[in-house]
Amino acid sequence: MNDVFTLKGKEILITGASKGIGRSIAVICSKNGAEVHITARNSEGLENTMNLMHTNGHDLHTADLGITEEVNALAKELPILDGLVLNAGIVKTMPVRFIKEEGIDVTFDVNIKGSILLIKQLLKLKKIRENGSICFISSVASKKMTVGNAIYSASKGAINSFTKSLALELAPKGIRVNAVLPGMVKTNILQDSSISEDDLKNHLNKYPIGRFGKPEDISYLVVYLLSNASAWMTGSLLTIDGGYSIS
Ligand SMILES: NC(=O)c1ccc[n+]([C@@H]2O[C@H](COP(=O)([O-])OP(=O)(O)OC[C@H]3O[C@@H](n4cnc5c(N)ncnc54)[C@H](OP(=O)(O)O)[C@@H]3O)[C@@H](O)[C@H]2O)c1
User: Fold this and answer.
1) What Rg do the C-alpha atoms of the chain give, in angstroms?
2) 90 CA distance to ligand 1 centroid (A)?
3) Ligand 1, atom 44: nearest CA belongs to which residue?
4) pTM of this prediction?
5) Which among 152, 207, 220, 244 is annotated as catalytic?
6) CATH number (domain holding residue 150)
7) Ligand 1 centroid distance, CA of 1 (Å)
8) Could you tell me the residue range of the domain that residue 99 belongs to?
């Protein structure tokens, strides 16, 4: 019964694996038996993730998902995959009237466009195995709004729509596509979102479980989505937020 949750024999790609949630997903996938391919821009961060992974056979690929040539080169380097975790993401927090065009572009390039182009190339190269699983890391910010997060929320909303469209398109091949929508998880991304300590304390009151997420809370759900245990799940948007969205 437990074997259905294993990732043994599966080759999994994880983007944004040089730190944070992506690093945790990589380590926990390796513990569950997967052969893991990790990517991000920072090679030192990727090396540190490699050192935390269990067993051998994993590899790393440096690539900027915001640069199409690097996305295409990455697709060429990768082997045939059983699972993809599109986790890389950035946040730019500011009211709409202060947003610059380049801020919109970089947010959409990294959060959604790079992942779309990578999947397109992998499909063209027949590098996603039948009955494979694709898992996006979206955000609860795609459905519960906070002021200053408009562009980030819009990019994550785009992921949600794309997840459902792609799930429909790839279902005949048995490839499943789902998205995970985390609430606040303590990682470096919080520093980039310019949230003050006071704001964080107030925000915590909206979490009925009484704490923010840990990267591993997200990783265990991703392992389920990559495993055969979720064979009948596709096109689903799974919220995991300590109850934030029902409060
Ligand atoms: N933490 C949260 O509260 C939270 C909540 C909901 C959703 N999420 C989502 O979860 C995902 C991971 O977030 P996190 O908190 O772990 O963030 P993080 O610690 O800042 O990690 C982000 C990852 O994305 C990679 N990345 C950024 N820009 C990239 C680019 N141009 N090309 C390739 N890789 C790039 C980074 O690697 P390099 O810098 O080395 O390239 C890093 O590995 C994101 O999609 C985020 O939106 C996070």
Assistant:
1) 17
2) 5
3) 89
4) 0.98
5) 152
6) 3.40.50.720
7) 34
8) 2-246
Query: Can 152 be counted among the known catalytic residues?
Result: yes
Structure confidence at residue 194 as a pLDDT band (50, 70, 90): confident
Instruction: Assess whether pLDDT exceeds 90 at residue 83.
Output: yes
Separation in Å, CA 82 to CA 98, 130, 131? 42, 8, 8
Question: CA-CA distance, 191 to 136, in Å (whole number)?
Answer: 22
- Whether 181 has a pLDDT exceeding 70, the answer reads yes
Query: For the chain, how far is it from start to end, CA to CA, in angstroms?
Result: 35
What number does the ligand 1 atom closest to the CA of 184 have? 3
Res. 196: pLDDT tops 90: no
Report the alpha-carbon distance of residue 226 to residue 218 in Å, rounded: 13
- Split at pLDDT 50, 70, 90, the class of 195 is confident
User: What number of CA atoms fall less than 13 Å from residue 215's CA on the CB side?
Assistant: 18
According to the model, what pLDDT value does residue 139 have?
98
Pocket of ligand 1 (CB under 6 A): 16-22, 40-42, 45, 64-66, 87-90, 110, 137, 139, 182, 184-185, 187-189
* Residues above pLDDT 70, as percent of the chain: 99
- Which of 47, 90, 91 for a ligand 1 pocket mutation test, highest count of atoms within 8 Å of Cβ? 90
Average pLDDT, the chain: 96
Q: Give nearest CA residue, ligand 1 atom 1.
A: 185
Residue nearest to atom 17 of ligand 1 (CA): 189
* Nearest C-alpha neighbor of 132 from the set 178, 75, 71, 72: 178
- How many independent structural domains does the chain possess? 1
